[in-house]
Amino acid sequence: MKTTSFLLSTAICLASLASSLDPITVKGNAFYQGNDRFYIRGVDYQPGGSSKAIDPLADADNCKRDVPYFKDLGLNTIRVYTVDNSANHDECMQELSDAGIYLLLDVNTPKNSINRADPAPSYNADYLQAVFATIDAFKGYDNVLGFFAGNEVINSVNTTGPAPYVKAVVRDMKSYISAQSKRAIPVGYSAADIAQNRWQQMEYFNCGDDSERIDLFGMNDYSWCGPASSFQISGYQANVQNYGNYSLPLFFSEYGCNTVQPRTFPEISAIYNTEMTSVYSGGLVYEYSSEGNDYGLVNITGSNVTTLSDYDALKSQLAKYPDPTGAGGASTTNSAASCPPFQSGLWEVDPSSSLPALPSGAETYIKNGAGKPLGLSGPSTQFGSSSDDDNGSSSASASATASSGAASSGGSSTASAKATHTSKGAAGHVEVPHFLTTTVLGAGAYITVFFAIGLAL
Ligand SMILES: *[C@@H]1O[C@H](CO)[C@@H](O)[C@H](O)[C@H]1NC(C)=O
Ligand SMILES: *[C@@H]1O[C@H](CO)[C@@H](O)[C@H](O)[C@H]1NC(C)=O
Ligand SMILES: *[C@@H]1O[C@H](CO)[C@@H](O)[C@H](O)[C@H]1NC(C)=O
Ligand SMILES: *[C@@H]1O[C@H](CO)[C@@H](O)[C@H](O)[C@H]1NC(C)=O
Ligand SMILES: *[C@@H]1O[C@H](CO)[C@@H](O)[C@H](O)[C@H]1NC(C)=O
């Protein structure tokens, strides 16, 4: 038996090495594939929607069904919001690799994430074990472009409190990768479409010691709506100017406003043009599959895929606007930003305070590895860690609290809230209230309004 399993694991190991892509590297404010600048041409991919928390990369049939469409669209990257760290991903990752496609992966799940409403208890050793086990599940694949430590945890001007916890997660992920991974896989953050404090977020996650700075910054941005908008009207031009000194790769981790239907993706003419490429490195369209919220490129029914008009539009726009040649204006310096000042009602983080300390109990994971992955059916860590001696029963009471939905007014959703014009938000979240974001455009600026629309499902 021993021999068999050895041979089996050798075979699996060889299989996963069978073909590989050059890992993407970060230099200055840009991505590189070998010596060539790399621009993300991507879609966000979570068929079934995030509320169901189904790992799309654990099902080889799904990948066989969808990867040919990614290829047909001309993509080189997908983003996935939720995976099961106990599942096997070899086949899907190989399918993607064979198609020349990289993965940006969010490490959080509905049960394992920083709780926006009450971050301190959610930052615990059990939570980090889940995050680290997800890194373990993917660190061996050359086509992992990077990990997102968080998505839209800060989703308004007055939810900046969790920022130090998210940054602590960045720090811990970097420590873990440095101790437990052969490759230095980039770690980033994906920010909500909040114009008011986006710059503060960019600077905050990029300030301080290298060991706690992110390596890439994704912005979810729905500001270019239809053909009547433009480089200027959308605010893209102002962003290029305002973010021109940003020292890390910047890209749209979600884009594709849907208030004008059908979508024709005129913004692609700017995104891959030198008017933007000195500051931006492409982006990912929200989202591949239709989840009943008017963002889909395709309808999926079982094993059948039906392409929609958005699909054809995206494909034709991506084909029409190739990457610029050469470096596209990228800069090569990557110096730390200064931490943004405390501003009441806008950015309520003291720039001189240090990050929350690594929870005791998590040190062993960094040193010895995360151990057994608990998958999507493992315990919720959002309200405390079951391994905290002082809070031994917190996990059980946490689940009770979670199902009643009483204690929490928000969590870090695994996919973004952006339910403009829909009856159902994209932000699936099993255990916490939904947030519904409405983006109202006006004179080049936008305001984001939040509604908490109910409690647990
Ligand atoms: C956030 O700020 C808005 C606008 O000032 C206010 O209406 C809202 O109550 C605040 N929310 C929280 C959770 O403080
Ligand atoms: C960018 O850096 C230059 C030189 O340091 C400085 O003059 C300029 O104000 C900066 N721009 C922004 C938007 O920070
Ligand atoms: C895609 O699915 C939506 C929702 O089920 C449906 O209304 C629409 O007709 C479908 N489109 C195609 C082309 O199948
Ligand atoms: C998929 O398409 C085939 C061929 O058109 C059809 O026979 C089958 O019923 C479809 N399956 C589903 C689940 O819609
Ligand atoms: C236990 O939980 C309480 C309340 O959430 C918290 O204040 C305390 O720091 C926790 N103790 C430990 C050891 O985590």
TrEMBL record:
EC number, as in UniProt: 2.4.1.-
Source taxon at top rank: Eukaryota
BP GO annotations: fungal-type cell wall (1->3)-beta-D-glucan biosynthetic process; fungal-type cell wall organization
Signal sequence interval, chain numbering: 1-20
GO cellular component: fungal-type cell wall; plasma membrane; side of membrane
Residue stretches of biased makeup (Low complexity): 392-420
Family affiliation: Belongs to the glycosyl hydrolase 72 family.
Gene that encodes it: GAS1
Protein's recorded name: 1,3-beta-glucanosyltransferase
Compartments where found: Cell envelope; Cell membrane; Membrane
Enzyme class: transferase
Keywords on record: Glycoprotein, GPI-anchor, Lipoprotein, Membrane, Signal, Transferase, Transmembrane, Transmembrane helix
Regions that span the bilayer: 435-456
Region spans: Disordered: 377-420
Task performed by this protein: Splits internally a 1,3-beta-glucan molecule and transfers the newly generated reducing end (the donor) to the non-reducing end of another 1,3-beta-glucan molecule (the acceptor) forming a 1,3-beta linkage, resulting in the elongation of 1,3-beta-glucan chains in the cell wall.
A single GO molecular function term of this UniProt record: 1,3-beta-glucanosyltransferase activity
UniProt xrefs under SUPFAM superfamilies: (Trans)glycosidases (SSF51445)
